[in-house]
Amino acid sequence: MSNSERGLAAGTIVYGVYVIESVLGEGGFGVTYLALKKDTGQTVALKEYYPLAYGSRKPGSCEIEPVSGKEAEYDHGRERFVREASVLHEFCYLDGIVKVWDCFETNGTAYIIMDYIDGITLKEYVSCHGGMGYDEWMEMLSPILKSLITLHKHGVIHRDISPDNLMIGMDNQLYLIDFGAAKEIEYGKTTTVLLKVGYAPPEQYLHDGEMGAWTDVYAICATIYTALCGKAPIDAVARLQGKPLIPLEDQGVALQVWQWNAIQKGMRIRAAERYQNVEELYEALTVAPKDVELPTIMDVTTDDKIKEQMHRVSDRGGKRGIWRSVGVTAVFIMLVCSIAIWGIKNRNPVKAQPETATAADTATERASEEISTEEVKICTMPDVVGMSETEAREKIIREDSKIRITVERKNSSQMDKDLVMEQTVAADTKYNEGAITQVVLTVSDGVEATTTVSSKPSNTQDTQKYDVKSNKKQTADFYLDD
């Protein structure tokens, strides 16, 4: 994507450290740039606070100032922007969440330094390749859902989840970016109106709509809809006016009924009718309901067959034909039962039977094995965050002895060394024993010694020009072409 009129020009140096290369994207709250760190040549994503509703850039300058009469809103938004960086830095260990490394204020605004994700957005992917399969997509999305569970528990909602805020990296991992609309909440009202058509629930269209985890739930399910069929869902306003949500089946997507039901419930118009948190949504998307009953042999050979015969005869007309068909079926069942009873009465309980079974016996045993049911244990994943590795293993195995436990270690300043700081299967997740084969525990390796730029370089202007041609790093074409 080329630089825009709104963004800073290529070659601009911000904070004396970061050289702007190009604009990666723009949103209602800011502009994100591809930048190079001068001293190391590291490629980073630099995000500038630039709210369209409250701010404007001074002509011929890099400075941003509040719109007249909107000073309070501008300052409040900037404070929240800085808090976003603090929140994301605190949870930098979460999978699928873009890593934040630094934050500073200059040019009358604020900037966040983040990892540069080399890849394409989900929006770009589906426009070129169409939708994905359900299992493939859920495997990519699951780490983000688990990370959102943690963020929501700490009172942070994203409010802008959509296909253009999900990046598919070159490592084939999914990343949630642009927390510019993220808000620390008390599950109450907010005065900021932010939405994306097709992905925003009705409460985001209201100036004082009540938002919470259920707001992200709607956006997640709308994004799942697009990921599976390649098309945006019907907008919430149109649905309020009576336009129905087109079933994914009608979009050519093959789903099991419970999967589509989960997506639909997450996109209910009334917030109270949706899943109220991502834990509930994750379980609904990944665990089939227990009350799905399999047909027995009798179901197949009698009920369905009678219905089929009745339908076929009724097409020819006449009640007599229907009763004749039912009678024939009843006689057939009685004959089978009589043969079975005769066989039981004439079996010799003393005489040893030959080791080789007849074809009929083998078929009967096979059918019995197929229709026999075994009670399935429902497991609940325990919360092991903060425990030692040994304690965590013991607690998980007590709940599910079949699951495989894998450990990864990462540096962290938030969790003491050798304690579990993250688990890939969210706490309190309910599942059929054997449905989840592995849980990965991330164990803290303690604080990593690093050196960072923490203060503004002396005798350096806020903004300079710099020739980046000789030091420009190769970037993906999809970022350079709009």
The CATH topology of the largest domain is what? Transferase(Phosphotransferase), domain 1
Query: Helical residue percent?
Result: 25-40%
Query: How many domains is the backbone divided into?
Result: 3
Question: Distance between termini?
Answer: 5 Å
Describe this structure in words.
The chain is of the alpha+beta class. It has 3 domains: 12-116 and 451-475, Phosphorylase Kinase, domain 1 (2-Layer Sandwich); 119-286, Orthogonal Bundle (Transferase(Phosphotransferase), domain 1), CATH 1.10.510; 378-444, Trypsin Inhibitor V, Chain A, CATH 3.30.10. Helix content is 34%, strand content 18%. It has 12 helices and 19 strands. It is globular and about 65 Å long. 32% of the residues are buried.
Q: Topology of this structure?
A:
Layout: E1 12-14, E2 18-26, E3 30-37, E4 43-49, E5 55-57, E6 64-66, H1 71-90, E7 100-106, E8 109-115, E9 119-121, H2 122-129, H3 134-153, E10 156-157, E11 166-169, E12 174-176, E13 183-184, H4 213-229, H5 236-240, H6 257-266, H7 278-286, H8 297-316, H9 319-345, H10 359-371, E14 378-380, H11 389-399, E15 404-410, E16 420-423, E17 430-432, E18 438-444, E19 463-465, H12 477-480
Parallel strand pairs: 15-18
Antiparallel strand pairs: 1-2, 1-19, 2-3, 3-4, 4-8, 5-6, 7-8, 9-11, 10-13, 11-12, 14-17, 16-18
Helix pairs in contact: 3-7, 6-7, 8-9
